[in-house]
Amino acid sequence: xTRPPADYDVIVIGGxxxxxxxxxxxxxxxxxxxxxxxxxxxxxxxxxxxVLHPGVKLNMHASLLMPHYGPAxxxxxxxxxxxELLAPPGAKFGYxxxxxxxxxxxxxxxxxxxxxxxxxxxxxxxxxxYRRIVNxxxxxxxxxxxxxxxxxxxxxxxxxxxxxxxxxxxMPKDWLWMTGFQLVDCLFESEKIKLAVLSYAGTSGLDVIGxxxxxxxxxxxxxxIFSADGGYTARGGSHDLTHSLVRCFVHxxxxxxxxxxxxxxxxxxxxxxxxxxxxxxxxxxxxxxxxIAVVSDVSAKPTFFGLIGEEHLPVSARVALxxxxxxxxxxxxxxxxxxxxxxxxCSARFPxxxxxxxxxxxxxxxxDAEMLVSSCLVSDVPLDPPIVxxxxxxxxxxxxxxxxxxxxxxxxxAIVPYELKAMGGPAxxxxxxESYADKVEEVFSRYLPNLKTAKLARYVNTPHDYVRRNPxxxxxMHPSGSVTEAQMWSWKPFAGCNAPRTPIDKFYIxxxxxxxxxxTLTAGTLTANVIMDDLARARPEWWCANAxxxxxxxxxxxxxTQRFTVD
Length: 567
Known about the structure:
Layout: E1 7-13, H1 17-28, E2 33-36, E3 48-49, E4 58-59, H2 72-75, E5 85-86, E6 93-98, E7 104-108, H3 112-120, H4 124-137, H5 141-149, H6 155-165, H7 180-187, H8 191-201, H9 206-209, H10 214-226, E8 233-234, H11 239-251, E9 255-257, E10 262-268, E11 271-277, E12 287-296, H12 300-308, H13 315-322, E13 330-338, E14 358-359, H14 366-379, E15 389-394, E16 408-416, H15 428-447, H16 451-454, E17 455-461, H17 463-469, E18 507-509, H18 522-534, H19 549-557
Parallel strand pairs: 1-2, 1-12, 2-9, 6-14, 12-18
Antiparallel strand pairs: 3-4, 5-8, 6-7, 10-11, 11-12, 13-16, 13-17, 14-15, 15-16
Helix pairs in contact: 1-11, 1-18, 3-4, 7-8, 7-10, 8-10
């Protein structure tokens, strides 16, 4: 190890879950791949740590795991390498939105018909609107997700997509110029249905549902996919997903280098040819060469302005990157350990909620939701009182191993701004940590009455803590930047790039914006697919899974047939 091999087919910079996915695919296919990670642990935003006391495992960011949505779950055989996805035993619903009057809007984790029936308890008219939408999209939802997430987007494909959207029943003709807020206002009658739909779509960020194109797509993704398939936790916590990817990569011969901060990408003749490590890396100033490709799992600005250098970029790329937008929303997190199972107030009328993994709360009216957007995207101050909307999770009802026997862990993500410029900058979060956590808790206890009596401990993570863990995130809850109409589709992460390809030959990025949860691993799958296409190399027989194939298999084990349509 004093002189590790210096030549590889592919070098991957950064050990996030999509960098690991890209590396594992290519290594398993027979290429020689090296992955360099700046930290002593991979999976920065998909980690599980015991930060309270021994035996209490807290998931520090990624919590709603969805690798079963994409092909990597089966292609890379992640179960063989230790990944065990878990939902609450016997759970019918995957998500709910409670209200203080005792109502709740529920969404199935397996069957669009169950979502439809749950909605009828709140608004029969809106249930019929939902039925018409999912009956249109449902038959092709898995294929559409596959094609749009593991194949590169194109301008021609966008035009075809617009033509297809014109045939969607109940869809307003001017949807393309609407935000997610405006779309739900057109589609639905019940304010409770509107809020429930927006809240889950908003887990992708307020910048998503507040923007045109991205907002309607987030709403439609949720209605047609997430309301017929819920996410999971992993046995032992989210980091088990990272571990399974590492095991897969190393098992097939991949070389993983920790504490190896990459300083520069070597550019020769307009092509990426390798990397140079930083002077403080395990191998100081060492140079490693890549015959076929260099891949970055670092966000756009640090990648192109730091690793590549402006001098290697065309003027158009430099202009686009100068305008690259990290703004949006980030997360303020309360973690809890309780000594009894969570018991929600709305369970008196909707007992199913106490066995549901994911939920949101806080906005009782659309006006509340609009105030949240304004506080984050306009005023740059945290909303008081808080509205969660980043999602909340009941881990131990799905996986008891994440806490000692008889204890239960919970997480709430309140969406807040990061910069706080009017309050003195992001360091102000250190001062606000406990006082704002108290405000979140006060709101939470109105929906979960046994929170305060059952609470054993609380731990708080601020937006500034997330940036300390991952400086490349830019303060956004998604390190790939804001998901806006200017930074998505074939313009992601910026016009003239169309990730995973870039303006630099043999250089790719596997961290690209979109409306899907990054734990689907589809960005890594897409990058591996494009590299194979550029090599004109045939995929091995094992490289053949389709989107949601793994999802269907998981549900079959429960004796359930997945259904994306109502009828």
